[in-house]
């Protein structure tokens, strides 16, 4: 069948239907993944890009193994077959690129370091693009595999181009040396520093006359290949490199002969520094010093609740993305604290010193000092006299909260509410004065003004990070929920919802607050009955709580989905973007998908939002449409194709949308292409 082309750079509406059977495709994926994982020769160039690519493919290999078992029981969704086909193309090209980088001419690869880095980056982006259309919720996978694939998808989506600056510098030096050598041959002038050339060659793994001979042979083969394609300038440059390394052969021979003697005595400091990079490239980092997530040397090892150690940055990213299990063991983490592993850090630093590997400790100390300085400036933003005045005022008002009459309590709560609104310093001072427990007690006051002032004061205080923990420790959730459910005024209910949003910013609080049986139903009720401001407060609080996977089912069971869909067309409420954001999160669980699929009005609404919505609204609308097509494509995709505005809207989004929207619009168009058959 012929493909139907579209204008410009947009993807075609019809693609070739030449897909392999699912079982054959998975067998091919597993084989090519194992081939990549079994590449044993350690690379001297593109080390970080190659190790990251191999790690990603190894993670995908476990995914393929599990899907293979599923295929024997039931057919795969169409979007899964499309995703796997694209992944096969990516992995096959990655294998060729890695083998070329490892087995090809080191000098030729060094000359192309930016180009090869770009090729790795392109493959990572294509991998992310393929995973965009993988319907994880429809695949019978273990929780650990799902989490690993989700993390891989996020990392690949955010991956930045990496070019090793040391490789670039080495390349530039050798090019300059080759030019100087060529001029010297032609004009009997020009001086080449052969010792520096020798060290540069050593840094990329060319340390002996035999290795130089191999490089010359590989460069000559490359020159013949380039000559056949008309690359005369490239051939000339390759010949210059051959001339340079041939001339440096004598220096390498001398260095090779003296190598044993040099090992017997301590090298001068300057020599050790020159060879630090080559030493790092030549050796393998011990497994216990590598982060289990990124497989790179750990800079800041920390222990999680399961007892396993990870690099702080990688495990923090894992936890912040909503995961609450140990990536290595799959064990649920009972707390999210990251405890420094000082013993391992000391061993890593010792190993780095022994092997002349530069560490990041000095940079970290400098950064830490700078952060401490900035924090100090932030917390001493008022003069000492002003701070003392605030402290006296706060202590006076807290005394009135504790001992005053109802009228005095009302006024004191109001004054604290205002004082807590005016800066981080004031919020800290008020908490230190002991106001929080008394304000929590006043939430149960029968006086509507006292209750409203108390909950609003707690909302203002909760903006300070440490105060969030103090409010939770004071057992405030029961009282805040009571105000949310039965508050005397609508403003009190709204501010109670806003306080829940603020407290749930901390990861572990999402689980604690969501576990309260009345919190989510009360927020959903406010979503339906509140004012425009109340609905917005309820939606943002629900969004925060739904970031924790276990809370999503509770939000759905409380009846939030129909209300959220209804709010998409409620211009008076004006919370279309907030409602879309919550729906996008709820789509990520099976209950949410089933509930959202029941709405017959949602798809045309989402298409209208693609045309007329805000930038954030378009991102969430395309997220919903993509999710619906991935997980229920047989029903939703035809409805999309029948709507005359859907394809033009998606094509506009691939050209004019945000980066996230463009990627998802492209993925949805690919699924629709597949559904045309």
From TrEMBL:
<dbReference type="Pfam" id="PF04564">
    <property type="entry name" value="U-box"/>
</dbReference>
<dbReference type="Pfam" id="PF25598">
    <property type="entry name" value="ARM_PUB"/>
</dbReference>
<dbReference type="InterPro" id="IPR057623">
    <property type="entry name" value="PUB12-19-like_N"/>
</dbReference>
<dbReference type="InterPro" id="IPR016024">
    <property type="entry name" value="ARM-type_fold"/>
</dbReference>
<keyword id="KW-0677">Repeat</keyword>
<feature type="repeat" description="ARM">
    <location>
        <begin position="434"/>
        <end position="476"/>
    </location>
</feature>
<dbReference type="InterPro" id="IPR011989">
    <property type="entry name" value="ARM-like"/>
</dbReference>
<dbReference type="InterPro" id="IPR000225">
    <property type="entry name" value="Armadillo"/>
</dbReference>
<dbReference type="GO" id="GO:0007166">
    <property type="term" value="P:cell surface receptor signaling pathway"/>
</dbReference>
<dbReference type="InterPro" id="IPR058678">
    <property type="entry name" value="ARM_PUB"/>
</dbReference>
<comment type="pathway">
    <text>Protein modification; protein ubiquitination.</text>
</comment>
<keyword id="KW-0808">Transferase</keyword>
<keyword id="KW-0833">Ubl conjugation pathway</keyword>
<feature type="domain" description="U-box">
    <location>
        <begin position="284"/>
        <end position="358"/>
    </location>
</feature>
<dbReference type="InterPro" id="IPR036537">
    <property type="entry name" value="Adaptor_Cbl_N_dom_sf"/>
</dbReference>
<protein>
    <recommendedName>
        <fullName>RING-type E3 ubiquitin transferase</fullName>
        <ecNumber>2.3.2.27</ecNumber>
    </recommendedName>
</protein>
<dbReference type="InterPro" id="IPR045210">
    <property type="entry name" value="RING-Ubox_PUB"/>
</dbReference>
<dbReference type="InterPro" id="IPR013083">
    <property type="entry name" value="Znf_RING/FYVE/PHD"/>
</dbReference>
<dbReference type="InterPro" id="IPR003613">
    <property type="entry name" value="Ubox_domain"/>
</dbReference>
<dbReference type="GO" id="GO:0016567">
    <property type="term" value="P:protein ubiquitination"/>
</dbReference>
<dbReference type="GO" id="GO:0061630">
    <property type="term" value="F:ubiquitin protein ligase activity"/>
</dbReference>
<feature type="repeat" description="ARM">
    <location>
        <begin position="518"/>
        <end position="560"/>
    </location>
</feature>
<dbReference type="Pfam" id="PF25368">
    <property type="entry name" value="PUB10_N"/>
</dbReference>
